[in-house]
Amino acid sequence: MKILISNISESPLYQQIKDQIIDAILKGELAEGDTLPSIRAFANDLKVSVLTIRRVYDDLEKEGFVNSQIGIGTFVSASNIELLRDSKRRLVEQKMQDMIQTAKSLGISRQELNEMMNILFEEE
Protein backbone atom coordinates (compact mmCIF):
# COMPACT_ATOMS: atom_id res chain seq x y z
CA MET A 1 0.00 0.00 0.00
CA LYS A 2 1.44 3.31 -1.09
CA ILE A 3 0.41 6.39 0.89
CA LEU A 4 1.27 9.83 -0.45
CA ILE A 5 0.88 12.83 1.83
CA SER A 6 1.24 16.48 1.05
CA ASN A 7 2.12 19.28 3.42
CA ILE A 8 0.49 21.78 1.07
CA SER A 9 -2.87 19.99 0.94
CA GLU A 10 -5.87 21.61 2.59
CA SER A 11 -6.68 18.26 4.25
CA PRO A 12 -4.90 17.44 7.50
CA LEU A 13 -2.31 14.66 7.37
CA TYR A 14 -4.45 12.17 9.29
CA GLN A 15 -7.36 12.72 6.86
CA GLN A 16 -5.11 12.22 3.82
CA ILE A 17 -3.82 8.93 5.26
CA LYS A 18 -7.26 7.75 6.34
CA ASP A 19 -8.83 8.52 2.94
CA GLN A 20 -6.10 6.63 1.10
CA ILE A 21 -6.48 3.57 3.33
CA ILE A 22 -10.25 3.59 2.78
CA ASP A 23 -9.70 3.92 -0.98
CA ALA A 24 -7.31 0.95 -0.90
CA ILE A 25 -9.92 -1.13 0.95
CA LEU A 26 -12.72 -0.13 -1.43
CA LYS A 27 -10.58 -0.86 -4.49
CA GLY A 28 -9.60 -4.26 -3.13
CA GLU A 29 -5.92 -3.39 -2.74
CA LEU A 30 -6.40 -4.23 0.94
CA ALA A 31 -8.55 -7.29 1.53
CA GLU A 32 -10.35 -8.63 4.57
CA GLY A 33 -7.82 -9.92 7.08
CA ASP A 34 -4.87 -7.98 5.67
CA THR A 35 -2.67 -6.52 8.37
CA LEU A 36 -1.96 -2.80 8.48
CA PRO A 37 1.53 -1.73 9.53
CA SER A 38 2.15 -1.17 13.22
CA ILE A 39 1.52 2.37 14.38
CA ARG A 40 5.19 2.98 15.06
CA ALA A 41 6.40 1.48 11.77
CA PHE A 42 3.75 3.32 9.75
CA ALA A 43 4.57 6.63 11.47
CA ASN A 44 8.28 6.10 10.75
CA ASP A 45 7.60 5.22 7.09
CA LEU A 46 5.45 8.30 6.56
CA LYS A 47 7.56 10.52 8.83
CA VAL A 48 4.56 11.59 10.89
CA SER A 49 3.74 11.41 14.58
CA VAL A 50 2.56 8.13 16.09
CA LEU A 51 -0.41 10.15 17.40
CA THR A 52 -1.42 10.88 13.81
CA ILE A 53 -1.44 7.19 12.91
CA ARG A 54 -3.22 6.32 16.17
CA ARG A 55 -5.98 8.78 15.24
CA VAL A 56 -6.25 7.28 11.74
CA TYR A 57 -6.52 3.73 13.10
CA ASP A 58 -9.01 4.77 15.80
CA ASP A 59 -11.23 6.51 13.21
CA LEU A 60 -11.03 3.54 10.84
CA GLU A 61 -12.01 1.19 13.65
CA LYS A 62 -14.96 3.38 14.70
CA GLU A 63 -16.15 3.41 11.09
CA GLY A 64 -15.87 -0.39 10.80
CA PHE A 65 -13.05 -0.57 8.28
CA VAL A 66 -10.51 -2.23 10.60
CA ASN A 67 -10.30 -4.21 13.82
CA SER A 68 -7.46 -3.67 16.28
CA GLN A 69 -6.28 -6.40 18.60
CA ILE A 70 -3.95 -5.24 21.35
CA GLY A 71 -0.56 -6.86 21.01
CA ILE A 72 -1.46 -8.52 17.70
CA GLY A 73 -2.17 -5.77 15.18
CA THR A 74 -4.72 -3.94 13.12
CA PHE A 75 -6.58 -5.88 10.43
CA VAL A 76 -8.87 -4.94 7.55
CA SER A 77 -12.44 -5.86 8.43
CA ALA A 78 -15.23 -6.71 6.04
CA SER A 79 -17.72 -7.38 8.83
CA ASN A 80 -19.81 -4.41 7.81
CA ILE A 81 -20.46 -5.18 4.14
CA GLU A 82 -23.22 -2.58 3.87
CA LEU A 83 -20.81 0.11 5.07
CA LEU A 84 -18.35 -0.90 2.37
CA ARG A 85 -21.06 -0.97 -0.30
CA ASP A 86 -22.33 2.44 0.75
CA SER A 87 -18.79 3.84 0.70
CA LYS A 88 -18.29 2.46 -2.81
CA ARG A 89 -21.52 4.05 -3.94
CA ARG A 90 -20.47 7.38 -2.44
CA LEU A 91 -17.15 7.16 -4.30
CA VAL A 92 -18.98 6.58 -7.61
CA GLU A 93 -21.48 9.35 -6.85
CA GLN A 94 -18.64 11.81 -6.21
CA LYS A 95 -17.04 10.92 -9.53
CA MET A 96 -20.39 11.20 -11.28
CA GLN A 97 -20.93 14.66 -9.76
CA ASP A 98 -17.56 15.73 -11.19
CA MET A 99 -18.52 14.25 -14.57
CA ILE A 100 -21.89 16.02 -14.59
CA GLN A 101 -20.36 19.37 -13.67
CA THR A 102 -17.75 18.99 -16.41
CA ALA A 103 -20.40 18.00 -18.97
CA LYS A 104 -22.59 20.98 -18.05
CA SER A 105 -19.67 23.38 -18.28
CA LEU A 106 -18.91 22.04 -21.77
CA GLY A 107 -22.52 22.24 -22.92
CA ILE A 108 -23.01 18.48 -23.21
CA SER A 109 -26.66 17.47 -22.89
CA ARG A 110 -27.96 14.80 -20.52
CA GLN A 111 -28.87 12.59 -23.47
CA GLU A 112 -25.39 12.91 -25.00
CA LEU A 113 -23.79 12.25 -21.62
CA ASN A 114 -25.97 9.14 -21.12
CA GLU A 115 -25.02 7.87 -24.58
CA MET A 116 -21.33 8.40 -23.82
CA MET A 117 -21.65 6.62 -20.50
CA ASN A 118 -23.54 3.68 -22.06
CA ILE A 119 -20.85 3.24 -24.71
CA LEU A 120 -18.05 3.39 -22.14
CA PHE A 121 -19.85 1.07 -19.74
CA GLU A 122 -20.40 -1.53 -22.48
CA GLU A 123 -16.70 -1.40 -23.49
CA GLU A 124 -15.64 -2.53 -20.04
UniProtKB/TrEMBL annotation:
<dbReference type="GO" id="GO:0003700">
    <property type="term" value="F:DNA-binding transcription factor activity"/>
</dbReference>
<keyword id="KW-0804">Transcription</keyword>
<keyword id="KW-0238">DNA-binding</keyword>
<dbReference type="Pfam" id="PF00392">
    <property type="entry name" value="GntR"/>
</dbReference>
<dbReference type="InterPro" id="IPR036390">
    <property type="entry name" value="WH_DNA-bd_sf"/>
</dbReference>
<dbReference type="InterPro" id="IPR036388">
    <property type="entry name" value="WH-like_DNA-bd_sf"/>
</dbReference>
<dbReference type="InterPro" id="IPR000524">
    <property type="entry name" value="Tscrpt_reg_HTH_GntR"/>
</dbReference>
<keyword id="KW-0805">Transcription regulation</keyword>
<feature type="domain" description="HTH gntR-type">
    <location>
        <begin position="11"/>
        <end position="79"/>
    </location>
</feature>
<dbReference type="GO" id="GO:0003677">
    <property type="term" value="F:DNA binding"/>
</dbReference>
<protein>
    <submittedName>
        <fullName>GntR family transcriptional regulator</fullName>
    </submittedName>
</protein>
